[in-house]
Amino acid sequence: MITFPNAKINLGLNVVNRRPDGYHNLETVFYPINLCDALEFVPAVKTSLNIAGLPVSGDIEQNLVVRAFRLLQRDFQLPELEIALLKNIPMGAGLGGGSADAAFMLKLVNQHFLLNLSVEQLEHYASRLGADCPFFIRNKPIFAAGIGNDFTALEVSLKGYYLVLVKPEVHVSTAEAYAHVACQRWDVPLLEVMAMPLEKWRHYLVNDFETSVFEAHPELAVIKQHLYDTGAVYAAMSGSGSTLYGIFKTKPELNFPDSRVFTLDL
Any idea which architecture 162-265 has in CATH? Predict the structure, then answer.
């Protein structure tokens, strides 16, 4: 069986405050986009993970896809699997590629082996893999609060627009992003901003990580400004970076040297 895990972008990201447990309370909107990996498996004598496309480092047992399978294998009598993953979503880019792969693995195993797990049960398994993994179970726009795992369905659609993703050769670690972000609560709450016309988002919809990340990596600010200069209605960094995106009314033709660029229909 084969499935196609898709990426997401963040529409706004407010880092509200630091919690006593060391995590941060957030408010953001996760929006699914049609930039996809490909994932499939067949039964095998020993579990393996074969990755093609973009490189992925690390021990296979620590890969989120294998960890997702092992979670279900502990609770159900499942055979070992030969897993193939074609990576098209850049890693460490703020696009949720690893989380999507894990969530789609849970859904694919559930479907193939007729485990009859409910959406809620799949979300519970996904929550053990990462805060944003459960989002990819339903895979619909949501408002996320808490540490990014308290979800509320949200009616927002960007259908008819074009999305340009720009992933430069810059790595921004999650630890680096959180170490320097300034916590604050927005004057205009995120849900109120999302109700505004898209043309107003530029003035109200913010990613709080941009201030410190752009200071450390000024080339990212240059990319964002270029997206606006070439006609983006709204542009921002996704998650903690380093992907920048622009939302356009008409399909643009852009060139960003030394960056991976994806132009998608929304």
Answer: 2-Layer Sandwich (3.30)
